Amino acid sequence: MVGHQGGAMEKDTGNNRTPQTGRKTLTAPAPFADETSCQCQAPHEKLTIAQARLGTPVDRPVRVYADGIFDLFHSGHARALMQAKTLFPNSYLLVGVCSDDLTHKFKGFTVMNEAERYEALRHCRYVDEVIRDAPWTLTPEFLEKHKIDFVAHDDIPYSSAGSDDVYKHIKEAGMFVPTQRTEGISTSDIITRIVRDYDVYARRNLQRGYTAKELNVSFINEKKYRFQNQVDKMKEKVKNVEERSKEFVNRVEEKSHDLIQKWEEKSREFIGNFLELFGPDGAWKQMFQERSSRMLHALSPKQSPVSSPTRSRSPSRSPSPTFSWLPHKPSPPSSPKAASASMSSMSEGDEDEK
């Protein structure tokens, strides 16, 4: 089997690819089939599914084909292609994409045009080759041209183009390999979401700069949508103010709680210190008693004893000095007898001095 642009085909074991060609699938888009001139040189014998699952000859991989519209390419498409790629140990995945003419004729209008859908498939990591303008119903000539061994698709009968199942003849030939659909995601589901919430998306795009003409919106609806956008902005501002006010209140509550705790601690400390100083057994009371006793002792005079025995003076102690320079005034006699007695004594004293 000759690969792309004359090189050997790449070997693929599961999800781990060992490229043997110049093209690196994970670093470049997948090529288009009509640009590669892919030709099979090795004998292309028909394989059964059991043989393919056991492993094919080393000279070529199993060529698996998957087709579809792939509009609004999503994860459900990617998972289906991943399953097709990993059906066999060594496989080469070709993906056919139908043109706009066929799709609009047999299925309906698409959101993406055919060029956009081709490019979406080229950038899927599981795709090795993209076939543009794929047929709606597979013919033997098409299968032979691209050397397709098996066709991968979900097992639900696909009724279209006057047929109950366009894959019926492929199933009868033993070339059909089923894949599983991904629940909850499809192109129709995505379009349904957009149609259901049309006003939301129209307002969104108006807000992003699209014109009413580009969105096919009437003048009245445009004014309505713009007014609703203004109302939403006001609601958002009010919501932000409420959230900020709640945050401010929470902060005030936290700070007040901290202040109350600190005040309680300080008040307990103040009360303890006050009781320690001014309580019944406080230091202030003892200090006051001591000072008051000192003041009373200092203010009250000392009382001399009424009768005290005459103490003999110690010879070591010097007598208290007498101030002889002070004039001595005799006390007046209390009676005539005392006056005469004092006069006599004074005369006797004078005689003795002589």
From TrEMBL:
Q: Which reaction does it catalyse?
A: phosphocholine + CTP + H(+) = CDP-choline + diphosphate
A Pfam family cross-referenced in the UniProt record is CTP_transf_like
One GO molecular function term of this record is: choline-phosphate cytidylyltransferase activity
Low complexity composition bias: residue spans = 304-324, 336-347
Keywords in UniProt for this one?
Coiled coil, Lipid biosynthesis, Lipid metabolism, Nucleotidyltransferase, Phospholipid biosynthesis, Phospholipid metabolism, Transferase
Alphabetized InterPro entries for the sequence: CCT, Cyt_trans-like, Pcy1-like, Rossmann-like_a/b/a_fold
Keyword Coiled coil belongs to the record = yes
Span of domain Cytidyltransferase-like: 65-193
Write out the biased-composition intervals (Polar residues).
15-24
**Coiled-coil ranges (or none):** 224-251
Give start-end of the signal peptide.
none
Q: Disordered: where is this region?
A: 1-29, 298-354
Annotated EC: 2.7.7.15
Q: In which pathway does it act?
A: Phospholipid metabolism; phosphatidylcholine biosynthesis; phosphatidylcholine from phosphocholine: step 1/2; Lipid metabolism
The record, for NCBIfam families, names: cyt_tran_rel
- Record's function text: Catalyzes the key rate-limiting step in the CDP-choline pathway for phosphatidylcholine biosynthesis.
Q: What is this protein called?
A: choline-phosphate cytidylyltransferase
Q: Organism source for this protein? A: Moschus moschiferus (Siberian musk deer)
Q: Which gene encodes it?
A: PCYT1B
